[in-house]
Amino acid sequence: MMKYFCTTILFFAALSVNAQVIVDHTDMPVSGDIIYFRSANNLNGINYQQTDTAYTWDFSSLSSTTNAVDTFVSVNSTGMVYSAVFFQATSAQPIAMQTIPMISITDGYNFYKNSNSMYSILGLGAKVNGFPVPLKFDNQDVLYNFPVTYGAMDTSNSEAHTNIPGIGYLGHVVHRENVVDGWGTLYLPADTFEVIRVKSKVSYYDTIFYDSIGFGGGFTRNVTEYKWLTDGFHGPVLQITKQGGGGNNITVKYYNHIPTDLSVGSINQGSLKVFPNPASDLIAIEIPGPVDEAILTVTDITGRVLTKTMIQQQHIVLPVSQWQKGIYFVQISDSRETYCGKFIKY
């Protein structure tokens, strides 16, 4: 029986290596998510544009410079004006705003709608000279159509316009072209994921007219986004954004799980054997060495602790059937060292 069980695990593991991951609406951010990233400004010569089927992207040499956080909040928490306009949105994300001469624009939000068929931006909002101003798109800015499938292509055009008393006119136009151009394995400095990649070419055209001086104008920003998505993670595990205009104006952010307990002297990242992986009901955890009153901790991608308990054995069986679909991280620490691993719950 055990031989059959192990053979079955190896069979499905082999299949997973040679198959696309399936990304759908359950893999998108939800209200309450706080997702931690690292950012980098040097790709160390990595050819990030290369792609193919069953491809391997090796970003393990990335050197992070700062920490970054993606935070998603409920639409109601953004205020009455926005919640009335974006009542169909499922979450909102605080964003940095572009600087515009003679106007103070602060406290920006993107408003997202997650449905079974697509994940999109309904519009944005910000305080203009201290007053909340919603900009709702006439058509949704579609980030992903579901399921995300290799070879899929789509285009969306979105625009919003508003007149602001005492200031003038604001316009925001977005043209997006998406193509799912590859799938395979992604190596990051501390993690490995099976991924599918989406490349987006985005053109933004912003217009402003000042009533006080009877003058205005518009400007265009062209951006190319490369996003690596995986099953069970709420958003890209790696995103590279290239601004237009030539040069090497690139920003990089990637997920990097760090053990929660860094007080021990030795950290063995990825050293735990966790199987079956992916799992639906039970996981077995095998520790490579003896432990003495160790602490077993399991967290989700946001850092939320699912279980934390003391163990003394090298082999543990853990029920996971009640947990939501996603990626989970296992950490076992004693007074000498920390062992780490991860698994996918489906």
Layout: helices, strands, pairs:
Layout: H1 2-17, E1 34-40, E2 55-58, E3 66-71, H2 80-85, E4 91-95, E5 105-114, E6 118-128, E7 131-145, E8 153-164, E9 168-187, E10 192-210, E11 215-229, E12 238-243, E13 250-255, E14 266-268, E15 273-275, E16 282-286, E17 294-300, E18 305-311, E19 315-319, E20 326-333, E21 337-345
Could you characterize what this model shows?
With 346 residues, this protein is mainly beta. It contains 2 helices and 21 strands. The chain has helices spanning 2-17, 80-85, and strands at 34-40, 55-58, 66-71, 91-95, 105-114, 118-128, 131-145, 153-164, 168-187, 192-210, 215-229, 238-243, 250-255, 266-268, 273-275, 282-286, 294-300, 305-311, 315-319, 326-333, 337-345. Strands 1, 2, 3, 8, 9, 10, 11, 12 and 13 form a 9-stranded mixed β-sheet that branches. A 5-stranded mixed β-sheet has the order 14-21-20-17-18, with no helix packed on it. It has a 4-stranded antiparallel β-sheet with strand order 4-5-6-7.
Summarize the structure.
The chain has helices at 2-17, 80-85, and strands at 34-40, 55-58, 66-71, 91-95, 105-114, 118-128, 131-145, 153-164, 168-187, 192-210, 215-229, 238-243, 250-255, 266-268, 273-275, 282-286, 294-300, 305-311, 315-319, 326-333, 337-345. By secondary structure, it is mostly beta strands. Strand 11 and strand 12 form a beta hairpin.
